[in-house]
């Protein structure tokens, strides 16, 4: 089996680290060699957070270079555009359509770009874009966006939803388990 490269991107506080932890656990349970590496920008201030997840028969490094990502999972729309250069030909971007203003937009120094999904598609990229925030809110918490997106990724990767549900039950705090299970199922159905 060749190595599969997944880039998970978002902003601080969106749960990218929990998502990568769950994904890594599932992949290990499936018998893969897995490497995970997290890069934190100014995450405590809503800055970019990036996680590399690589798996296969043997993985030597967690780093994903430009043009190597099989999948980009983006928790925020601008992050999908910011990291699109890492996608390999034939790769897939799964993105939440939620827009979180970066500091230059917040201060009025810049405007949030419009038409990001269309721009990515015009570049010939395969993009699955949907409102994961609304799906998370329907499940019971806006903080479950990460699990909604993991549900969509799991379906794309052909992973067992039952294994994901078990990983959620054993990893997530019991008081949030049911919300996360609903969020996962919502993403799986997207």
Description:
There is one protein chain. By secondary structure, the chain is an alpha/beta fold. The protein has a single domain, classed as 3-Layer(aba) Sandwich (Pyruvate-ferredoxin Oxidoreductase, domain 3). The protein has 8 helices and 6 strands, in the order βαβββαβααβαααα. A 6-stranded mixed β-sheet has the order 2-3-1-4-5-6, sandwiched between helices. α2 links the parallel β4 and β5.
Q: What is the mean pLDDT?
A: 93
Indicate the proportion of strand residues.
15-25%
Low-confidence stretches: none
Shape summary = globular
CATH classification class: Alpha Beta
Task: Write down the secondary-structure element order.
Answer: EHEEEHEHHEHHHH
Strands in their spatial order, largest beta sheet: 2-3-1-4-5-6
Report how far the terminal alpha carbons are from each other. Answer: 27 Å
> Helix/strand/pairing class, anyone?
alpha/beta
Could you please say which CATH topology applies here? Answer: Pyruvate-ferredoxin Oxidoreductase, domain 3
Counting structural domains, the number is 1
């Amino acid at each position: 089996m060749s190595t599969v490269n997944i880039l998970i991107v978002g902003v601080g506080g969106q749960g990218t680290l929990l998502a990568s932890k769950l994904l890594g656990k599932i992949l290990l349970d499936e018998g893969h060699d897995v490497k995970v590496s997290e890069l934190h920008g100014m995450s405590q201030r809503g800055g970019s957070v990036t996680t590399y997840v690589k798996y296969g028969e043997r993985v030597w490094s967690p780093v994903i270079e430009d043009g190597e990502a099989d999948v980009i999972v983006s928790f925020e729309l601008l992050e999908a555009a910011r990291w699109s250069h890492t996608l390999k030909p034939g790769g897939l971007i799964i993105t939440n359509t939620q827009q979180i203003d970066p500091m230059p937009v917040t201060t009025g120094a810049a405007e949030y770009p419009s038409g990001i999904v269309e721009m990515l598609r015009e570049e010939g990229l395969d993009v699955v874009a949907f409102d994961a925030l609304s799906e998370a809110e329907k499940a019971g918490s806006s903080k479950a966006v990460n699990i909604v997106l993991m549900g969509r990724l799991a379906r794309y990767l052909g992973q067992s939803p039952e294994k994901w549900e078990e990983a959620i039950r054993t990893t997530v705090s019991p008081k949030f388990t049911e919300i996360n299970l609903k969020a996962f199922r919502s993403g799986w159905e997207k």
